[in-house]
Design brief:
The structure holds two protein chains of two kinds.
Chain A: E1 3-6, E2 11-14, E3 19-21, E4 23-26, E5 32-38, E6 44-50, E7 56-59, E8 62-65, E9 75-77, E10 86-93, E11 102-104, E12 108-113
Parallel strand pairs in A: 2-12
Antiparallel strand pairs in A: 1-4, 3-9, 5-6, 5-10, 7-8, 8-9, 10-11, 10-12
Chain B: E1 4-7, E2 10-13, E3 19-25, E4 31-37, E5 43-51, E6 54-57, E7 64-66, E8 76-78, E9 87-94, E10 103-104, E11 108-112
Parallel strand pairs in B: 2-11
Antiparallel strand pairs in B: 1-3, 3-8, 4-5, 4-9, 5-6, 7-8, 9-10, 9-11
Classes of the chains: A mainly beta, B mainly beta.
Amino acid sequence: GNSVTQMEGPVTLSEEAFLTINCTYTATGYPSLFWYVQYPGEGLQLLLKATKADDKGSNKGFEATYRKETTSFHLEKGSVQVSDSAVYFCALSDPGGGSEKLVFGKGTKLTVNP
Amino acid sequence: DGGITQSPKYLFRKEGQNVTLSCEQNLNHDAMYWYRQDPGQGLRLIYYSQIVNDFQKGDIAEGYSVSREKKESFPLTVTSAQKNPTAFYLCASSGTTYNSPLHFGNGTRLTVT
């Protein structure tokens, strides 16, 4: 079946450091890929998405590129801020399926220190 | 502003009691979902509904029940049959077009003792 594997957390960085959170997936066909973010005490919010190979999703300084050859969708940000502290979830949607087919990774907790 | 409202934020119950978690949305979305979040396990789908008066089991439906009598509302009942009910519960909604993103509420933390 489809699955998503994220790097284990927690990740702790200093403000202005470079961030990478690794995400790899296993899927049949051509899934769409997503990053969701969960701030403390809140639900998840869509951060960015990519729907086909070589697409780059971007939002709020975060980027991720859909790499079919390596089945990866790593999240990057060039300079993190304290306000980026949150849990980040990588997810994929079964091609042709609705949102009920969304498969989430286990989440990676990021803490950014001033 | 449109959004999803879950209430209450914190809920405490004694073992053996049923409890109902509220979820209301004003986004005019057809589809609604319930997820359970446990530390280190990500999100697991409990139930979902794509249209009023219809719903389907997700991956971990045992011990839970839902209803969808109105488009705006999708309450979840955690029954006494759920063996490990203490968790963070998230409600979400989406449109039904391909790749419609999920919109989440802020969750209800249920503690059963």
